[in-house]
Batch of 2 targets.
Target 1
Amino acid sequence: MTSFKAARCPNIVSPKSGEITVDYRKLVEFIPVAKREMLSDKLVDFILTSKNDEKMPGQLANTILHYWQQDVLESESGLATLLEAALLLEPERTLGVFAELEMANIAEQIKASLPS
Amino acid sequence: MVKFGIEFVPREPFWKIIYYTIQAERGGFSNLWVTDHFNNRNVYVTLSTAAIYTNKITFGSGVTNPYMVNPVFTAQAIATLNELAPGRVVLGIGAGDKTTLESVGMEMQRPLVAVQEAVEIFRKITSGENVVYKGEVFKTAGAKFLFKPKGKIPVYVGAQGPKMLELAGKIGDGVLINACHPKDVEYAVNCVKEGVSAAGKKFNEVDVAAYTSFSVHEDIKKANKAAVPVVSFIVAGSPPQLLERHGIEVKKAEEIKEALKANDWGRAFGGVTPEMISAFSVCGTPDMCIERIAELLKSGISQFVVGSPIGANVREAINLISEKIIPHFQKA
C-alpha cells in the first residue's frame, strides 16, 4: 500500500460547485489496520460527547447509526463516516488523536485539505 | 430474573439516543423508556427511530400524561408504533409534571381520575372498539380508529404518591415506581400490592419497575459529580415528609430550591450532600450499584430502570452496566 506520507491527501473536486472535499474513504485506506479499532473508539467518543450537536448532518448521523447497527464502525466505510463526523464536530480533538496514535503525518495532510 | 431498563431524555439529539439504545440492546437491556416533555424532542419520533434501529428491545413512553395530549392521540401514536415493532411497544403514562404542565397553562386536574380514564380509553380504542365514554375528565362520543390495531399493548403506570401507586397496581400491566432508596421502594411496592390485590390479580402478573436516577463510574467521585445536578432537582421538588424520612433538613432543600430558581448552579449543586445522593439516586462504582440494586430487589421489583444521568460518560456507563452489573444478576 502507498504510504500516506508519500501520497497527497485524497481530495475530490465537486464538478458542480468546484468545492474541494476530503475523500474520507480513500483517506481511511492510509490508516494502518491495527490502529483502526482504537481510532474508531476515540472518534465515537468525540462525537457522542461533543457539544456541537447542531453541526451533525442528519444523513451522516443515520449512516453512522446504520454502520453501528451492523457493528461495522471499524470497517473502512464505517471509519470514513466517523472521521467525517468527528472532523465536523470536533476538528481539533480529531486531529489530535492522529498525533496520539502516531499518525501525525495523516493529521497534517487532513489539516491541509480542510477548508480554512 | 430482574430485567434492566434504560431511560433517555430526548433533550439529546436522536442520533445520540439511538446510538446508546443500540448499545444498550446489545448489552442486555430489555426495556427502553423515553421521557415525554414538550420542551424536549418528541417522544414518538424518538421511539420510531429506535424501533427501526433495534430488533428485540421493548420500548415505550416513560412517561406521557393525559393532559398535554388527548388519550386518543396517545393511543394512535402507540398503536402505530406497534405496527412498526409488533409486540415490542408499551405505553407508559402518569399524571405528569406539575411545573411543566403549568408552564403551558394546564392544570393537573384530578390526576387519579384522569390517569384511570385515559388508560380505559387507551385500552378500548387500541382493541378496535368504537369508544363512547362518559368519564369525569374525558368524554368521547364514538371514537374509533380507521385502521385495525395489532394486539394488546401493555400499559405501565408511573407513580410516586401512595394513591397513584395503588391505582397503578390496580389498573397497570406494569408500574414505574419513581424512587431510588430501598425504604421508598419498599413502601411503594406495598402500595402497589394493595392495588394489585384489590383488582384480584397476582403480584407476579404485574411488572413492577424501580425507575431510578442512576450514575455509575469506576471512580466514585466522578459518579457522584454526575449525579449531583439531577439530585438537586429531585431534592428541590420533594415533599417535606419524604425529605424527613431520609433525615434531610427541609431548610437545606429550600436553599437548593431557591438557588435553582436563581440559576445559581454553584450554590444549588454545592448544597447537595452525600445523604441526598444516597436517598435520591443509585450512585457509585459498579460494586456499590450492585449492592444497592440487590437491596431494591428484596422489595419484589421485577425491573430496574437506569435513568438520568446514567453516568459521567453515558457510553462508558452503559458498558459498565452491561459488562459488570447485568451479568451479576443474570448469574444470581
Note: The longest strand of chain B covers residues 207-216.
Target 2
Amino acid sequence: MVKKFLLFFLLGIFLFFILKFGAGDEEKLCDRNYFLLELKYSLGNFELINKSIQEGCAPDAKGNFEYRYSLVNNQTIIYFGKFNSNVLFLDDFSDGEMQGGVELIEEQKVFLIIPYAPEADDLQIFKQDEKIFETKIYDAGAISCKIK
Amino acid sequence: MEYKYIFLASFILLVVVGIFIFLYNPFIFYSGKESPSCEKIFYSGNSDEKVDIVFFTSGVSRNKLKGYIDSLFEFEPFDKQKNNFNFFYLDEKINCELKYSALFCYSLDLIQKSSGCPNDFVVVISDESGGIRSSAYMNVISINDKLPISVFPHEFGHVFANLADEYVPAKIPFGSKNCVKNCEEFGEIVGCFQECSESNFFRSSENSIMRTLNSQSYFELNQKIISEELEKW
C-alpha cells in the first residue's frame, strides 16, 4: 500500500512539472534582448542618433518594402528585415468615400528593432540593392566586453 | 477496496486532463498575463512562428478589441489562417500626435513599450474626434475609433502586404503589386478597372477593402498577394 501511494505521489510531482514548466514556456517569450537603433531618416539618407541593447521582443520584418537592413558577421548576413520609412498611409472615410492617400515622408525619426545577435559586427541598410548606411553594432549599449 | 479504485480513477483523470491542457495549448482564447501588462487575447502558438499583433488603446475599452480581431478574420485569406496569428494587449498609456490630419502614434516610447509583447505589428486604437484620419507607418497602425471597424483590415493590408490604396488620389509605394499600368499585368486575374492610387493605373476588382471600407473582401489579386506574404511566416 505504501509503495502504491509513493508511486502516486511521484506521478503527481511529474504532472505538476509538466503543467508548470511545459505550458509555461510562452511566459518567457520576451525574456530576450534586441538592438535598438534610433535613426534620422532624411530624403533617402539615414543618420545614426543612438544605438543600444534593450530587453524585450523584436518584431519580424518580412514584408516586401523598399528598404532592407542586414545584420552582418564577417560579411555574412545573419539576419535581415525590410521596412518603408518614407511612406505614411493616411485614411479617412467621410460621406462613404475614402480619402487621405499617401504622404511621402521627407524627415522622420526611425527606430529599428532587431533581435540581438552577439556575433553581429555591422548593421547595413540598403535601398533596393544600394548600400546607403552602415554602422558598427557590436559596440551598441553598455554590454560590451567583446574584444574586437 | 472501492476507495482504491476511486483514487486510481481520479488520478488517471487528472493525468489525462493535464496532458490535454499541455498539448491543446494552441488556438485558445487566453486571458493569462505574460508580463505585468502584456495580455494574450487570442493565442495560437509559439510567437516565433506566428504573426504577432499587439494592441494598445487610448480612451477605448479593451473589450472592443475582439471586434477588430473578428473584422480581420472576416476577410479571406485571413479567415482560414487564424492559427497563424497571435493577438496581445498592452495596458500602457500611449501618447499620439496628429500628422497630416491623421492619428500618428509611432514613437520611441511606443516601440519600447511594444517590446513587452511579441510585436510584429503594433496597433493603437484611440478615441478621437470625427474627421481625424487613421494612419499606417512602418509596422505601426494608428486607428481613430470613429472610423468603421473595417479600417483595420485596410491598414493591415498596407503594413502586412504593402498593398497600395485603390482609391484616388494616392501614391503607389515601391514594391506594391496591386496597382498596375496595364491590365495584361494581372495575368489570369479577371477584372481590370481604371484608377488605383493614380488615375492612370488599374486595379483588379471594382470595390475591394483597399478602395472602400464598405467592402467585404480584398478580392482575388490582393488575396493572392497576402497569401504569398503569409507563406513567409
Note: Chain B touches chain A through 71 residues (CB under 8 Å).
